[in-house]
Design brief:
Length: 185
């Protein structure tokens, strides 16, 4: 059975950052044996956003493909305690996943500057805004997902939920399922 997850990790130039970075994961439950849990957390496909220049510069870019080959790959020891995860299988279908994979490169075409969150910033174009935008495109308001309300996710929550556009025209379509306002970039 395929399961879908919204996962996060602490990010920042310094360790102990107060911000979390969201990414989406699709996993098939096929593992058995003593290493099943470790293998499970290392497996799957990912949809993520990030900076084109590390640690946090350049343009907002997206990445899709194998989790193990991405910037969000799990360590070989399994899921570390500072990473979080909520299952969103009841809100995502394979068709919706495929739509988000297809839309992700269109965020790249928009060439948004990658921004770190700072106080009193109205919009934040970053990896979390990518996930907010892609979930919005398939009719899911990320802020309505149970288990994430206590996270600090600039670009997807708090005072800076930022909806990005697609393509060079930066076309934006807000889902009718958005439950509250967003900033449009």
């Amino acid at each position: 059975m395929t399961k879908y997850y919204l996962e996060w990790k602490n990010v920042g130039i310094e360790s102990g950052s107060p911000w979390q970075h969201f990414y989406l994961v699709k996993r098939d439950e096929i593992f058995v044996g003593p290493d099943a849990v470790k293998l499970y957390w290392e497996s799957g496909d990912v949809i993520r956003g990030g900076p084109s220049i590390n640690p946090a510069g350049g343009y907002v870019i997206t990445e899709t493909g194998k989790l193990s080959l991405s910037s969000d790959a799990m360590p070989s020891t399994g899921r570390p305690p500072e990473r979080g995860s909520v299952e969103i299988t009841s809100q995502i279908t394979l068709s919706m996943w495929n739509d988000m994979v297809g839309l992700a490169p269109k965020v790249d075409l928009a060439k948004y500057d990658y921004e770190l969150p700072f106080a009193d910033q109205g919009t934040v174009t970053n990896s979390n805004a990518v996930i907010l935008t892609l979930l919005n495109a398939v009719g899911v308001d990320i802020r309505e997902i149970n288990g994430i309300s206590n996270l600090n996710v600039p670009g997807a929550g708090g005072s800076s939920p930022t909806l990005l556009g697609f393509g060079v025209e930066k076309g934006i379509v807000a889902s009718e399922n958005l439950k509250s306002g967003v900033n449009i970039q």
